[in-house]
């Protein structure tokens, strides 16, 4: 069988789409696939047509082995190719080709298939923001996976991903691994290559975020949360006055707020951002945020005349004018986070078309969904801002009160910047509760007048599976999908005919654990939760017989996934026992068992490197869950 492809688009992204189509069709059907020079020779045509849809739009037609794949954007064309491939049973389970389920089909299956697909994405913004500790390969594989699960965006925090790469290559928190060569030059070279991977796929490129406050003081944003620095005397008038002093906050530029009543601060920040926008016109959405700390707002008499959001909006308006004067169309993302949850009292954005609003409820609970809120009776009035005395809310209701307050002022483009796979997922031992919350959250975004979702998360968030991200991508593309259908599609490909044995087990683990407890929400001592953790540890212990039976009979990717489940079972036995002790008030015993957890995940990191971020689970455990390093 011969399949011939004609690329009617002929740009870098369409060239890549042809390569991908050639690979997967060859693997599915053991067919001869080649590209041809004219449309008349082709059995399959790739085309791109600009239309009036703001969101990604794809069309696929196939009949008797002849067809056309059309899209309205670069990334949509690649998504359309993967959408076509998925019709033949391919399931992109995890980042990396070795983790994909690709069946072997008779060649007649291609010729007999009839498809007429026309789909528009439910949401405009569908992406992930880098966190955790990552190798170059981890990031590159994740970028490759995004359009396969129908995502269209990636956010590189800071000037480049130095901080995230450094954590991996220096193996922070894992003394079992030797440090590898790494410096800022290596990070920049990797960053440049990753930018090429973004461009090749047509992924929308988000960049920077926190770091502009440090840049104003002369510190590069590429170093992220770098600390231990001393502020030169000449820079002190620029930083926030706290308790009568002007210093770096906790010795870290990224945490340091500025004196925004000082006109030099706004001028410097705007000049820096405009200069960056000139140099980096490949960036689709440039994020302009303030410091990554709270209750450190300037207390000087002039700053006390305004709340932080009013000062922020003034700078954003100044930035918009400067970008307009330079003829730069760069979109600016602004952030509702920490003090900036409190909406402005005086200022409004003069040019809403320039801006995208980003709602970031970082301290929210993940034990319930936006869909569970009583919107008629449960939303309180947004609290008044109290300088340097704010307490961030855990409840969805209070978080949403701040969003609704901002929405009275800003009616433009917006999305939620959420954190289900940033910390909370470590507390969900089966990853099934967090998957359902993601599913229901995204289903409900339209009612919140939000146009999408960027997940701030570890890229290595797949232990024991990547169903949370898979659900996220599919739902952002089509928010009417059935959860049970998604679950069957994913886990049947991952575990084979007995997939329901696994999902039943994983759902029980989720029922008997808590996202919130691991994420420092709620009392550290909870008798009921302690008992539940005991059940989850016992469930994992008893699952060994099922594992042994299936590891011996499965083949290919499914054997690999059952083996991974075996590692996960061992972790759950140990971690759930440690959490049982901690929640039961037996802290010393809990710390002793935690040492065993540390030894296990460190010793086996290379066995599940792509799926469990050992750096990050340790960091969250010590900063939030109450364990010691």
Walk me through the structure.
There is one protein chain. It is globular and about 80 Å long. Strand 4 (57-63) and strand 5 form a beta hairpin. Helix content is 42%, strand content 13%. The chain has 629 residues and is an alpha/beta fold. The chain has 3 domains: 2-120, Chitobiase/beta-hexosaminidase domain 2-like (Chitobiase, domain 2, 2-Layer Sandwich); 125-212 and 281-296 and 328-493, Alpha-Beta Barrel (TIM Barrel); 494-625.
The overall pLDDT average reads 95
Secondary structure: helix percent: 40-55%
Order of strands in the sheet with most strands: 9-10-11-12-13-14-15-16
Radius of gyration: 25 Å
Q: Which ranges are low-confidence, i.e. pLDDT below 50, for 5 or more consecutive residues?
A: none
Second-tier CATH architecture of the largest domain: Alpha-Beta Barrel
Main structural class: alpha/beta
**What is the makeup of the main sheet?**
8 strands, parallel, barrel
Distance between the termini: 59 Å
Strand content: 5-15%
What is the CATH first-level class name of the largest domain? Alpha Beta
DSSP summary: helix tally: 20
Number of strands: 16
* Count of distinct structural domains: 3
**Might you state the CATH topology name of the largest domain?**
TIM Barrel
Task: Report the principal-axis shape.
Answer: globular
In brief:
The chain is α/β, with parallel strands linked by helices. Helix content is 42%, strand content 13%.
Give keywords.
single chain, 629 residues, alpha/beta, Chitobiase, domain 2, TIM Barrel, 3 domains, six-stranded mixed β-sheet, 20 helices, 16 strands, 42% helix, 13% strand
């Amino acid at each position: 069988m011969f399949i011939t492809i004609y690329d009617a688009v002929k740009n870098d992204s369409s060239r890549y789409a042809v390569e991908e189509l050639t690979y997967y069709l060859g693997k599915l059907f053991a067919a001869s696939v080649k590209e041809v020079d004219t449309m008349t020779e082709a059995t399959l045509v790739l085309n791109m047509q600009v239309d009036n849809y703001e969101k990604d739009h794809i069309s696929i037609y196939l009949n008797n082995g002849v067809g056309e794949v059309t899209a309205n954007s670069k990334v949509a064309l690649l998504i359309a190719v993967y959408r076509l491939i998925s019709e033949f049973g391919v399931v992109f389970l995890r980042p990396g080709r070795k983790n994909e389920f690709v069946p072997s089909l008779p060649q007649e299956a291609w010729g007999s298939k009839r498809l007429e697909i026309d789909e528009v994405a439910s949401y405009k913004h569908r992406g992930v923001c880098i966190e955790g500790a990552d190798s170059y390969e981890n990031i590159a594989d994740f970028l490759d996976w995004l359009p396969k699960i129908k995502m269209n965006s990636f956010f590189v925090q800071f000037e480049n991903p130095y901080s995230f790469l450094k954590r991996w290559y220096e193996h922070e928190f894992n003394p079992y691994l030797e440090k590898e060569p790494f410096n800022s030059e290596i990070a920049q070279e990797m960053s440049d290559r990753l930018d090429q991977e973004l461009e090749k796929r047509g992924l929308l490129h988000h960049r920077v975020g926190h770091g502009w406050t440090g840049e104003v003081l002369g510190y590069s944003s590429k170093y992220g949360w770098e600390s231990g620095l001393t502020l030169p005397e000449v820079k002190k008038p620029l930083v926030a006055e706290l308790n009568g002093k002007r210093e770096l906050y906790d010795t870290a530029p990224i945490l340091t707020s500025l004196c925004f009543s000082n006109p030099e601060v706004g001028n410097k920040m705007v000049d820096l951002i405009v200069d960056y926008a000139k140099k980096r016109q490949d960036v689709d959405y440039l994020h302009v945020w303030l410091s990554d700390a709270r209750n450190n707002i300037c207390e000087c008499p002039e700053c006390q005349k305004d709340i932080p959001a009013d000062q922020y909006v003034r700078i954003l308006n100044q930035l918009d004018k400067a970008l307009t004067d330079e003829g730069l169309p760069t979109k600016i993302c602004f952030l509702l986070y920490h003090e900036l949850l409190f909406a402005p009292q005086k200022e409004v954005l003069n040019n809403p078309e320039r801006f995208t609003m980003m709602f970031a409820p970082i301290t929210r609970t993940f034990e319930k969904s936006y869909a569970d809120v009583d919107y008629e009776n449960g939303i309180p009035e947004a609290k008044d801002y109290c300088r340097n005395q704010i307490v961030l809310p855990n409840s969805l209701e209070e978080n949403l009160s701040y969003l609704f307050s901002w929405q009275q002022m800003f009616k433009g483009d917006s999305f939620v910047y959420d954190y289900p796979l940033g910390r909370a997922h470590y507390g969900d031992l089966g990853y099934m509760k967090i998957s359902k919350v993601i599913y229901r959250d995204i289903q409900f975004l339209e009612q919140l007048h939000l146009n999408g979702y960027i997940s701030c998360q570890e890229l290595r968030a797949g232990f024991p599976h990547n169903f949370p991200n898979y659900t996220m991508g599919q739902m952002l593309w089509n928010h009417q999908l059935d959860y049970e259908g998604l679950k069957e599609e994913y886990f049947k490909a991952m575990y084979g005919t007995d997939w329901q044995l696994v999902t039943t087990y994983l759902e029980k683990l989720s029922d008997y654990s808590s996202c919130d407890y691991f994420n420092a929400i709620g009392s550290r001592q909870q008798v009921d939760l302690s008992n539940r953790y005991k059940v989850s540890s016992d469930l994992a212990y008893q699952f060994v017989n099922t594992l042994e039976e299936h590891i011996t009979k499965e083949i290919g990717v499914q054997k690999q996934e059952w083996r991974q489940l075996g590692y996960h079972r061992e972790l759950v036995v140990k971690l759930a026992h440690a959490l049982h002790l901690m929640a039961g008030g037996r802290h010393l015993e809990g710390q002793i068992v935690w040492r065993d957890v540390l030894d296990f995940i460190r010793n086996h990191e290379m066995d599940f490197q792509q799926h469990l971020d050992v750096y990050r689970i340790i960091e969250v455990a010590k900063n939030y869950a109450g364990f010691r390093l």
